[in-house]
Amino acid sequence: MARRLGRRVTLLYERHMAPFGLSIGQFSLLGMALALPDSRLSTLAEALDIDRTTISRNLAGLLQAGLAELRQGDDRRQRLVRATPAGRVLWRQALAGWRIAQDEARRQMQDFDRLLIALEKAGDALPGPASG
């Protein structure tokens, strides 16, 4: 049930990000790149609690669209991520869609919370194991 709920919530956010040409993962990564400019991929992955493969996939789309850029750090092997001015503008625009999705998710979760409370009450009303 939790996986199904998670998929539905993800689809809800994806639907609201689609008009901006972003996935929810790209939106989150772009926002983190704005919050932590010139961060290493590993820093962003840790902050977002996602693996490097996922962050690389999300970053590829942002780079291709000109919404983020990579630059070399002090260490030649280090790649740092920064949102571009276009990325900053699009993220701010997409934030409105994210807020709408957030409100819808909260309403859906309230329904889910009510269901869990009702199930718990029903379970409490059932006879428990015999005490002996």
Structure description:
- It is a single chain.
- The protein is mostly helical and 132 residues long.
- Helix content is 68%, strand content 9%.
- Strands 1-3-2 form a three-stranded antiparallel sheet.
- Helix 1 (2-17) runs antiparallel to helix 5.
Summarize the structure.
With 132 residues, the chain is mainly alpha-helical. It is built from 5 helices and 3 strands, in the order ααβααββα.
List the helices and strands and how they pair.
Layout: H1 2-17, H2 24-35, E1 39-40, H3 41-48, H4 52-64, E2 68-72, E3 79-83, H5 85-125
Antiparallel strand pairs: 1-3, 2-3
Helix pairs in contact: 1-5, 2-4, 2-5, 3-4
